[in-house]
Amino acid sequence: MAVGATAAGAVTPEAIPATPFPLSQVRLKPSIFLTSIEANQRYLLSLSPDRFLHNFRKGAGMEPRGQVYGGWEARGIAGHSLGHYLSAVSLMYAQTGKPEFRDLAAYVLSELKTIQAKHGDGYAGGTTVGRNGQEVDGKIIYEELRKGDIRTSGFDLNGGWVPLYTYHKVFAGTLDAHQHAGLTDGLSVATGLGDYLGTILEGLSDAQIQEILRAEHGGLTESYAELYARTQNPRWLTLSQRLRHRAIVDPLAAGRDELAGKHANTQIPKIVGSARLYELTQNAEDARIARFFWQTVTRDHSYVIGGNSDHEHFGAPRQLANRLDQQTCEACNSYNMLRLTRHLYGWSGDAALFDFYERAHLNHIMSQQDPQTGMFTYFTGLASGLGRVHSDPTNDFWCCVGSGMESHSKHGESIYWKRGDDVAVNLYYASTLNAPEAQLEMDTAFPLSDQMVITVRKAPKSLDLRVPGWCDAPVLRVNGKAAGVRQGGYLRLTGLKSGDRVELRLPMPLRVEAMPDDAKLIAFLSGPLVLAGDLGPSDQPWEGVDPALVSDEAAPQLVAAGGLHQYRLGTRGKPGDLSLTPFFLQHRNRTAVYFRRFGSAEWVGEEAVWRQAAKDRADMAARTVDFIRLGEQQPETDHAFDGTPNTATITHIAERGRLIQKGYLAFDLKITDGPLVLQVAYAGRDRNKSFRLLVEGQVLATETLPGEATVARNILTYLLPPALTAGKSKVRVRFEADRDQWAYVYEARILRAAKV
Q1: Which tens digits make up the pLDDT trace of 354-383?
Q2: CATH: 2.60.40.10, 3.40.1620.10, 2.60.120.260, 1.20.1250.20. Which one for 623-752?
Q3: Which of 146, 365, 492, 721 has its CA 20 to 30 A from that of 562?
Q4: Which pairs from 180-184 meet CB under 8 Å and 24+ separation?
């Protein structure tokens, strides 16, 4: 996907700074967006703040009032969901005006104030960490940091699972409660949180802080910057600036894309922090960082739905065709990219920025939530044949559940903006604006309709209607007469008065978008919406061939199927015809988003290879019991990874992995009954290495590796003796070496043995 704020050769519109109308001044009307908000309301009201507060109270020496939730909330990262929940109920209050959500925010803040008072130093946290075989309160990590005891492999901090990330979520939640729910306690609790962590950071050198920042720390830069904005205390600005992660932001400031191999959503909040710092200090470097990062991610690292990352990591720029699987497009990434886009738009008022915002919001964020159950996806898999996996209401609480609570509490936040004396409409979502500057009522079924009607109740000085980049021929009428002047990505209307009826039609053409690195791997869009083939219900298996297109046309065409966004492959489809409808609506379907394109002569020679490749992929998926991608944060956490410090992650290439060095690395893999094999992926070039592979403490192989410079990966398979697996649900896999080997290992997989 390529989205630029200004097309090459185009005249750059004059920058007009913009600010969004407060969420409290916008109300959603019946639409898919209101349906989403209502589903999220039901979910938020079903949750118990006391269960989220369990560890917070326990760590302060107080009796918990509710049992801790399951999933991530029952692990070391516990507490992150409380922060998201606090943000979500505060946003929901602003979006709907319903007092029960403000009451929930007020209750959480009162509890946090009590907890801070018990600690006596501003601390409030729910994280835990293992110490001497016991799970203890995570505050111990912060006190170790205070003494200069800093240990991190990049994925942990002093043995804790991203404690600063969780700290930020609570910090951000208190600031959101202050802003969106109007609760002064939000600012006082935020100040206490800032002070506790601040006293630790202020006692450390810059080098020590940069070492801490190797571990994921969320948006602490932004939170301290925001605390400064609200209090004008320069202490918070200094801390925000010291929390700029130089290893990440310095290359960006210099215009270098060094994102390959990095955990994507670890980086995006850092850049949001740079954007906020720019707004407060006008430091041009922070603006360069934010703009270059945004352009790089949207142009070189994003898929057609606007999402980015595969298995949570960036790859090499513009190399996406081989990165399609079940773990593309983490939802948190798009949540944060939309936040960054709002900052950049605020600086310039450039309508083209909303081409990305609209794409990611409609196709990714709106696909993340099942509107019937209110549950959320973690990833949005874009390989053919995949369905969506939604969260359990009380037993998952992934990061994307937390950001999902927020995303689906604020669909009205970016519709209406102030651009100087103008009111701009950037998203065509059915809604009302009730502000001192203007009162507008928008009726539309967009994006499922191409027509909008805006009724003016109180006229602004001028009304600017965004013209999306996908629309070549907008039609605008006021009271039935053609109107509007095209200016800088907008149709501008002046001289409006109360009672005027503004009618806008945005024809939605069908278009093709190819992968940046493979012109023959294409996706289809209808107006703003990505289309996807319907491969059947997601609760039923799919073992078909990836759909393909056989066409000699310069731009392959689809067959219209009777309604807006309704198409078919027709006779061009292989292995047959297929219905294509908006991707985001297919919540319970297996889908095909990208299609391999063949010429008719090419298909004759390639069909057998195509079918065999699909069969091989399906066979691998069916045989896989469990697998781990080494060097990646979430898989290693999920599989209880452990190792000596020198088994470093591989970070100088786009593909993550681990080094086999003197010492060990180990992890768990799930198993099942029946003959099993362990398949391990090593670097193809590695040879004459010497290490041991153990399973359940027994040596399975003493490996040397054959090495072949022309092979990217060396895949070796080891038979697991039944005696090692009998009666077990998982096994411990361990690599040991007596000296440094510098051998790369990427992945380990438990497979059912192939049938002979």
Answers
A1: 999 999 999 999 999 999 999 999 999 999
A2: 2.60.120.260
A3: 365
A4: 180/23, 180/24, 180/90, 180/91, 180/93, 180/94, 181/89, 181/90, 181/93, 181/94, 181/101, 181/102, 181/105, 181/106, 182/102, 183/90, 183/102, 183/105, 183/106, 183/109
